[in-house]
Amino acid sequence: MSDDFDRSMWRLLADNLPARAGKIAAVDQGRAVSYAQLAAEAGRVADWLARRSIRPGDRVIVHLRKGIDEVAAMFGAWKIGAVVVNVNIRWTPAQLAYVARDSRARAAILPGKVLEALAGDHALPQGTAYLVQGKAKGLVQGADPWGAPAADLASAPDEPDPRGLAMIIYTSGSTGAPKGVMLSHRNIRVGAISVADYLGLDESDRLLSVLPYSFDAGLNQLTTMMLVGGTVVHQPLTMPAEIIRMAQAEAVTGIAGVPPLWNQIVRLLVDRPTELPALRRITNTGGKIPPNILELLPQVFPGVDIYLMYGLTEAFRSTYLPPAKFAAKMGSIGRQIPNAQVFAIKHGQGIAGPGEQGELVHAGPLVSLGYWEKPEVTAQKIRPCPELAHLLGDQPVVWSGDLVRVDEDGDLWFVSRMDEMIKTLGFRLSPTEVEDAISQSGLVTDVVAFGVEDADLGQAVHAVVTYLPQGDETALAAHCARTMPHYMRPLRYHSWPGAMPRTASGKLDRPAIISAAKAALN
Amino acid sequence: MGLSKDNLILYIRSELNIDMPLNGDTELFSTGMLDSVAMVGLIAFVEDKAGVRVQPGDVTLENFDTVDAILAYVQSLD
After folding, report:
1. From the CA of A454, how many Å to the nearest CA of chain B?
2. Fold of the CATH domain A421-521
3. Which CATH code, of 3.75.10.10, 3.40.50.12780, 2.30.29.30, 3.10.290.10, is assigned to A237-416?
4. Strands (E), A275-346
5. Using one digit for the tens of pLDDT, what is the confidence trace for A263-315?
6. Which residues does residue A332 pair with via DSSP β-bridges, in sequence order?
7. Chain B interface mutation, best of A113, A242, A446, highest count of B Cβ atoms under 10 Å
8. Cis amide leading into A18 (omega within 30)
9. CA-nearest residue of chain A to B61?
10. Could you report the per-residue pLDDT of A142-184, keeping only the tens digit for each?
11. Which among A29, A167, A318, A461 is placed 20 to 30 Å from A431, CA to CA?
């Protein structure tokens, strides 16, 4: 089995040839490519990179809208053994310039409009090679149009060490500058093997890709389809109605989303039920879906398997709850995925047992190589676990910073980020618990709970909410008084006008929301 | 005050930080100029200014991809 782990990213695509040469690998709105065509497109990009003297190990920025070109750019870089740095297309020129400089990228593949914006303060070093997608008038020096590399020369691929660096995923730093998580070829491949295994994916599958490829969970839709020889269907638009329309038109068999997206999709499908006969499974990651939305999932997706998953970028993917347990354990993140070892650790004591809580730690072949050029931060986050020394010796594990509860069967439930726990009236309270209780009211769309230092209470519970048309503070306070124990009830409600800010991967931007609410207090 | 072509364009320019040429038939979402976060704000603005409720199923490219399409959609609600 582990022989299968040690293959390069380029092989993930190329191993489909020649057997699946004519099979459709990827679909955009109005365009589709076979495996042979995709490999040829990637080959063209690889030839261009080689011609511009990009060498194995060099970092290549890929900053394109979701689509076939983006996939070709990534595999093109992998073909020559370069390191892909996929920067979310929603990031600003300032963020892009930061990442390009931090990773010391030697080439960037991006739209012409973005290249124009990389001027002045955001200009990249002289000598950076640019491959420009779309209309490019008056290209700067060093830039070539997308069509410049003529035909695929079918050059021999580089054979990188599978344990070497394949990709850097920058996580938008809520605190401080973005950090780059380093993934090896092996990390990404084992991730694909593990996820394809528990989702039961095969070559008849057509997965919808909505989540960005610059995000570990989004990358999996692509890598699992390449692994099993299926088809990935791209939807760059995040409008729920367009996602469902495309899922129906393209007969997709799986949709992967994050909580705010499921929130919107469920509201749409309640309003306008849609039959998706080809759909076999949906998956969630990137946080907890509010309980009122979770309960509606089986109703709007009848007969579809629902997988709740959990992952850390630093360990790629970690746990999942099998669909058979969904009805009984709605909201649990389940247990370790195949090939991963996941534990809940009571600091200084040992492994948390049934009914206990502990910090989630992750060991095994999915553990990343750490943060790009930040050895001290890496040593803090990825280090041996004394409580597991009897099992793992001094093997490093990822310390998630997430507090989880272990239930009587050994399944895990997310409690809170450890540094967000609220200490009030002598209770240790999880903001998630408060948020779930508030969501149950059906009066709000978004909610974030947090603690504010308070002389009498230790910390006071505050909640920031975006009200639905039928909601207001009087109604919400009445709901909380009726349904929540006294220590859990917010002392103060902040009304957020409109939708709350989200990170580029679609999660609520909690630190930004909390600091705005705190600022309004003063 | 109502929803007009002018205040809609002004909103997109100022609140959504778009400094590219923008007129009634500029494609906003299909080109990637605006994203889902912008969409949520845009809907709230339209609902507020026009005094209408936008149903989730109506949030499509057909109804929202251009300023002209948004105005035509809002008119169809009256």
Report:
1. 34
2. GMP Synthetase; Chain A, domain 3 (3.30.300)
3. 3.40.50.12780
4. 281-284, 305-310, 319-321, 335-336, 341-346
5. 889 999 999 999 999 999 999 998 889 899 999 999 999 999 999 999 989 99
6. none
7. A242
8. yes
9. A242
10. 899 998 887 888 899 999 999 999 999 998 654 567 899 999 9
11. A318
